[in-house]
TrEMBL record:
UniProt-recorded Gene Ontology molecular function terms: glucose-6-phosphate isomerase activity
Gene3D superfamilies noted in UniProt: 1.10.1390.10, Glucose-6-phosphate isomerase like protein, domain 1
UniProt xrefs under NCBIfam families: PRK00179.1
Sequence ranges of Basic and acidic residues compositional bias: 53-71
GO terms, biological process: gluconeogenesis; glycolytic process
Pfam families the UniProt entry points to: PGI
Protein name: Glucose-6-phosphate isomerase
Reaction catalysed by this enzyme: alpha-D-glucose 6-phosphate = beta-D-fructose 6-phosphate
Length: 813
């Protein structure tokens, strides 16, 4: 017997403004949501709308209901919170058997990417619509509606707000009170499905859409279990033929992967898998400008950012010569930075500008910062940067503002706002803070902003950039939507700050290095191709050997920020769970990437790497130091000392130390086991000539392409980042609660978040204690005492006084 649960809905209809409510950049053609507040009366109207849409499929009518290619209406309707509901007949609501009904044996849908459930229960309705219910992990109603319309053979989607996540519910409920009356027709009229839905995939075929179902994958699994797991690296490393075959070179880069837990057969099987996945074609598609970022319908062309002038006219997107455009922007960067460094561009008060503050976060910060750290001690960089100071402001923590600019003279400071979207909350607040900082010192004049603030942003953000007060003709350097933030360091995001600080010529050397590795990646046969080999080894370690983390250890202090950049690059790219066919993957992908320079890391987390969990490591070393030292009484130079560790660690990890070896050193028996190292821990060693701008470009490109290879093998879209988008929206809800509390007339306004007592409680604790602190509690406990006072203007304490550093006298916030 089919049990049917009724749901009662109050209904009044509004059209949701996508851009206001859910962000504007989801799918290229996204059907807008129509919202129906709860109420029985209007449920009838929902159903009538559905019926009208059904009748009007395949031809637009007066209501402009658009068709889908599938031949069925593509309405997306969100039905908001129901009241009650229970197990009963679907007739109970009085809709003649056509009400929204939950059927116990409803089909199971694969979960949406934002869901934590393994399946999503579907509600069927009589005329073929499908509702997604029972998944509290869903926080973005538009995204899930779009997702199912794109990937399932579903003509319509109803989302029940009361059964979605808290944030989705809140988003819907926020809109409802603003509903204009009697807009039902309009709500239906704006619905239009995607014009070309992806091919429908029957659920039974879904398994076959997984790379894990291929014979190549299964052979690797068997090989891992039968050949590799029983073997030890100690023995493998004795085989000189094997070791000989596990070296690759290109343009000064030397890769040694002999200490990976692989044999020649493993590599053969991995190359077979690459073949099966069409790796070479996918690489060519990427370089050629195909729209491989399919969830955003975008090309992926960070390689065009460093293409040479001789490649102008070789790649087109939407009829536009992308390399030509890149060089136009680079030429502008060169002209602007040359003029700045020649003192032709001066500040508002006529002073020459020497300080550069780059405001941006994520990809708009990490890449440029890692490059800056390298160039600080690079021989050419040392000279070209003399007299200049470059800083990065990323965190929205006000302390980051303090740390970045407390000792800078605003009259001599240029601010670069680096944001592809020019909407990122952290960056925009920091940008406004820096603008205020300038105004505090030089007066609230539009010209202050025009002369002291420039932007790196996408063309679509031009109006926002202008509204901020920036001169969009002279002071805006463009991004393209075919470059993701984390892949953008070779574009304006890196070009502008680095060229201002070090001169354009040095930045160009960085591009040349990246280009050299790009060409190698595109053209070298897979068995000699360093990024392909490293990508395949990444897949091997993660998916077949089960190592879920990975460390990057540069034996070069100047690369101290490389691990942070690669962490974002890789984890934001391959931290995914749905493959390109819209199927949930059933194999491990994506590593937890982390790292620190050697030797510091050895005295930090290497204990675990040697004797705890197995963490594959990339060791990066350099033949020559940027600055070597050899003191009279020392037998080795400091660089040799450093490099001794670079050579020793991989062997220690691979070979380990047996109990016999420990005993032979005279170790007391009770300590022997504590001193045993099981070894068999994989690593790769990369050796480069010397850390220069050029080599840094090679390293960057190498790791970008490693990430792409892994994504291609795993069948992921490595170029979107919906997980981060979700996080951005969640903070908006919290901010609204905070604003309510802060603006409340009632002294002890309490935050109540529906169904979320834990967050309500901790937020109330925060609000109460911050109020008490301002009122002054007299306690020395910083939680309840008023030790900090937000200053009103930045000018209050410039130049900084001794006391400012301790935050005393209320002078520093
Ligand atoms: O962290 C998410 C992200 O979207 C990154 O990919 C991007 O680099 C960063 O935010 C900053 O975005 P924007 O450049 O638009 O300010």
């Amino acid at each position: 017997m089919t049990m049917v649960k009724s749901a009662s809905y109050l209904v009044a209809t509004i059209v949701v403004q996508n851009q206001l409510t859910f962000g504007s950049s989801f799918l290229v053609q996204r059907p807008p949501l129509a919202l129906y507040p709860t109420g029985r009366q209007s449920l009838r109207r929902v159903m009538e709308d559905f019926e009208r849409m059904g009748k009007n499929d395949n031809h637009d009518d007066d209501n402009k209901i658009s068709k889908r290619d599938s031949g069925r209406g593509g309405a997306v309707v969100v039905a908001a919170a129901h009241e009650g509901g229970g197990t009963t007949n679907d007739d109970e609501d009085g809709h003649g058997g056509r009400g929204i009904a939950v059927v116990d044996d409803a089909p199971q849908l694969p979960p949406h990417p934002s869901s934590s459930a393994t399946t999503t229960t579907a509600m069927t309705i009589s005329d073929g619509g499908v509702a997604i219910v029972g998944d509290h992990a869903i926080t973005d109603p538009q995204a899930i509606a779009d997702y199912y319309l794109q990937h399932e053979n579903i003509p319509r989607v109803i989302l029940r707000a009361d059964l979605l996540g808290r944030s989705a519910h809140a988003q819907i409920m926020r809109i409802l009170p603003k509903a204009p009356p009697s807009t039902t027709a309009a709500a239906v009229a704006v619905n239009s499905g995607p014009t070309s839905p992806p091919p429908m995939i029957a659920t039974s075929n879904r398994r076959r859409q997984l790379v894990s179902s291929t014979p190549e994958w299964k052979r690797l699994q068997r090989h891992a279990d039968e050949v590799i797991r029983p073997s030890h690296l100690r023995d493998m490393l004795r085989d000189s033929n094997r070791c000989e075959s596990m070296i690759a070179h290109h343009d000064g880069v030397y890769l040694d992967y002999t200490r990976q837990r692989v044999t020649a057969e493993t590599m053969d099987l991995l190359f077979d898998l690459a073949e099966r996945q069409g790796l070479r074609e996918r690489i060519r598609d990427m370089f050629g400008g195909e729209r491989i970022n399919f969830t955003e319908d975008r090309a992926v062309l960070h390689t065009a950012l460093r293409a040479g002038r001789d490649e102008i006219g070789s790649v087109y997107v939407d009829g536009v010569d992308v390399v030509g455009e890149v060089h136009d922007v680079l030429d502008r960067v060169r002209r602007f930075t040359d003029a700045f460094r020649a003192g032709e561009i001066t500040g508002y008060t006529g002073k020459r500008m020497r300080n550069i503050v780059s405001v941006g976060i994520g990809g708009s910060y990490l890449g440029p910062e890692f490059l800056h750290e390298v160039l600080k001690t690079e021989s050419e960089g040392i000279n070209t940067s003399l007299g200049y100071d470059l800083r990065f402001l990323a965190n929205v923590d006000p302390v980051d503002v303090e740390r970045t600019c407390a000792d800078l003279d605003p009259e001599e400071t240029l601010i670069i706002v680096v944001s592809k979207t020019f909407t990122t909350a952290e960056t925009m607040l920091n940008a406004r803070t820096m603008r205020q900082w300038l105004w505090d010192f030089m007066g609230d004049d539009a010209d202050v902003v025009r002369r002291h603030v420039i932007a790196c942003s996408s063309v679509s953000a031009t109006e926002n950039v202008r509204a901020f007060g920036i001169d969009t003709n002279e002071g805006m350097f463009r991004f393209w939507d075919w470059v993701g933030g984390r892949y953008s360091v070779c574009g304006a995001a890196g070009a502008v700050p680095i060229s201002l600080m070090y001169g354009y010529d040095l930045f160009e050397k960085f591009l040349e290095g990246a280009r050299s590795m790009d060409k190698h990646f595109l053209n070298a046969p897979p068995r000699e191709n360093i990024p392909i080999i490293m990508g395949l080894l990444g897949c091997w370690n993660s998916s077949f050997m089960g190592y879920s983390s990975r460390a990057l250890i540069p034996y070069a202090q100047a690369l101290l920020r490389l691990p942070a950049h690669i962490q974002q690059l890789d984890m934001e790219s391959n931290g995914k769970r749905i493959n390109r066919h819209g199927v949930e993957i059933d194999y491990p992908v994506g590593e937890v990437d982390f790292g620190e320079p050697g030797t510091n890391s050895q005295h930090s987390f290497f204990q675990m790497i040697h004797q705890g969990q197995t963490v594959p490591v990339d060791f990066l070393g350099f033949v020559r130091s940027q600055h070597d030292l050899l003191m009279d009484n020392e037998k080795l130079s400091s660089h040799d000392e450093l490099m001794a560790n670079f050579f020793a660690q991989p062997d220690a990890l691979a070979n380990g130390k047996t109990a016999e070896e420990v005993r032979s050193e005279g170790c007391p028996e009770e300590l022997v086991l504590h001193k045993v190292f099981d070894g068999n821990r994989p690593s790769s060693s990369l050796l480069f000539p010397q850390l220069s701008a050029y080599v840094t470009g090679q390293i960057l490109s190498l790791y970008e392409h490693r990430t792409a290879v892994q994504g291609f093998i795993w069948d992921l879209n490595s170029f979107d980042q919906w997980g981060v988008e979700l996080g951005k929206k969640l903070a908006l809800d919290v901010k609204e609660h905070l604003m309510e509390a802060r603006n409340s007339e009632v002294g002890d306004h309490e935050i109540i978040i529906a169904d979320n007592p834990a967050t309500s409680r901790i937020m109330n604790y925060y609000i109460k204690n911050s109020r008490d602190a301002v009122r002054g509690g007299g306690s020395s406990n910083p939680v309840t005492s008023a030790t900090s006072v937000t200053r009103k203007t930045h000018k209050d304490h410039f130049p900084p006084q001794i006391n400012d550093l301790g935050g005393l006298s209320g002078r520093l916030s």
